[in-house]
Amino acid sequence: MLDIFVSCFVNHKTIEMKKIFYLLILSPLISFSQYVDMWHFSVPYNETNIYEASEKEWFAKVMSKAAKDGLIRGWGMSKRFGKNESNVDYITWISFGDLNSRKKAYNSIGKYFNQTSKQLYTPKLSEIGREKWGSYVVGNSNLYFDNFLSAPEGIKIKFSVHNLAMSKNPKNFSEQQKIVWLPFFKKLLKSKNTKQKSWGVARRINPRGNKHNWNVMTVDGYESLDDIFESINSTIPGISKLNLDPITKSAPDGWYDQIIWENIIRVNSKGEIIE
Fold first, then answer.
1. Segments in the chain forming alpha helices (H)
2. Would you state the pLDDT for residue 188?
3. pTM recorded for the entire structure
4. Domain ranges, residue 167
5. What's the total number of domains in the chain?
6. CATH number at residue 135
7. Which of 56, 88, 133, 254 is the most exposed place for a label (fewest CB within 10 A)?
8. Which of 102-111, 171-180, 200-209 has the lowest average pLDDT?
């Protein structure tokens, strides 16, 4: 199992990941950029307890140590909400401040992973999950978040909406988001006149190409499902004053998909495990 993880981590395996997520809570209303590597999992319903145990009791502890030692900026796991099929979709993510820190982590993570794992006690259920982990992986993806507006300190982002689109010019799409939406959401979140608590925009840098159905995304963070549904059924204050034409031209087909993810567990930049 570990060999599969390290292979994905080091060789950047380019299988399309259908649905992805990233969310990291830092200090109030700070906009920042970073690189994020993600894995997409499809887990049979009757094995979700095994998979979640492996992530919570093993991966979270390993990533907590990695964050404390400065190897990574954060880690997390989320579960797709409301999908009625034979399997359940999950994602995990690892974030890095820049490419240099990402490279440093890649150069040492395999050995580090083994050393840290041997020091941890994990229950039997988690051990089973570790052995089956590789069979759940269906893809991985690399993102660059040009801007992420974090939630105020003390607020737990329990759910996120992922807005996925195909842009003719991803860099321009991100720039227009920065010009139009970043200052708007800074003001809106500060006013507290919204149920939304965080916002971000990212470009998928790998895999790329015409066979994929999206290459840009925005992420909206909320404290609860009720907040999401209330926001969907209401108008964002001040939105009518925005000029959205440049963004619309950059992604003329609109959102390819909009997905709700439940955030199960994460590790912050201090190495704290938060559920």
1. 2-11, 48-54, 60-68, 99-119, 124-136, 170-191, 225-232, 245-250
2. 83
3. 0.80
4. 2-274
5. 1
6. 3.30.70.100
7. 254
8. 102-111
